[in-house]
Amino acid sequence: KIVRIAVEIKKLCPHSLVIMGNKSYNEVYERMQNLNHILAWAHARVLENTLEQVPCKYALSDQFGNAQLINNALMPKGKNIILMQRPKAESNIAVAAASILARDAFIENLKKMGEAFSMEFPKGCSPKTMSAAETFVEKYGKDSLLYVAKLHFNLTDKLKDNPDKPEKNNN
User: Fold this and answer.
1) CA–CA dist 14, 10 (Å, integer)
2) 3-state SS class at 150
3) Where are the alpha helices (DSSP H) in 63-153?
4) What is the distance between the alpha carbons of residues 153 and 161, in angstroms, rounded to a whole number?
5) Spatial distance between the Cα atoms of 37 and 106, rounded to a whole number of angstroms
6) Could you count the other beta carbons within 10 Å of the beta carbon of residue 100?
7) Residue 60: helix, strand or coil by DSSP?
């Protein structure tokens, strides 16, 4: 349903997405060491890009951390709006639409990753996800996780290298 609804939202609404691949994400996380700071930068970037398409006076964001994080990351156009943040902001239709677009991009990127590495990458953190991660490490080596996983997540700490497989990168 997400994919189908996202198509309609894209037709109807000015929007912007910031898509950060796993390799880029891991590099940025290594520097910032804080997921909320990365989220704040991405929210500010999306807001700025959207304001290039359509002017507005107000914006609403889900509050995922200190409210000042996004405010501090705002760029020139974003500094001219009134930014409101609240937990569960997806109860607002615009934030819900943005959430659907983000989920659609996530699903699409999982699909592309699966095609690139000839395997399925399940969503979430489950025994199925762990099994896929172990299979990936067996085939490509733990160093290649950089391209398919967020390295600071607990799941990656649980993985063991297979000493019989050489380390190789597909990207």
Assistant:
1) 7
2) coil
3) 68-73, 93-117, 127-140
4) 17
5) 20
6) 19
7) strand
Residue 23 is inside which H or E element, if any? helix 22-32
d(CA 150, CA 18): 16
Per-residue CA distances from 33 to 28, 29, 43, 72 (Å): 8, 5, 17, 17
Residue type, 153: F
Long-range pairs for 130-134: beta carbons < 8 A, 24 or more residues apart:
130/155, 130/158, 133/159, 134/159
pLDDT in tens for each of the 171 residues of the chain? Answer: 999 999 999 999 999 999 999 999 999 999 999 999 999 999 999 999 999 999 999 999 999 989 899 999 999 899 999 999 999 999 999 999 999 999 999 999 999 999 999 999 998 888 999 999 999 999 999 999 999 999 988 778 777 554 444 444 444
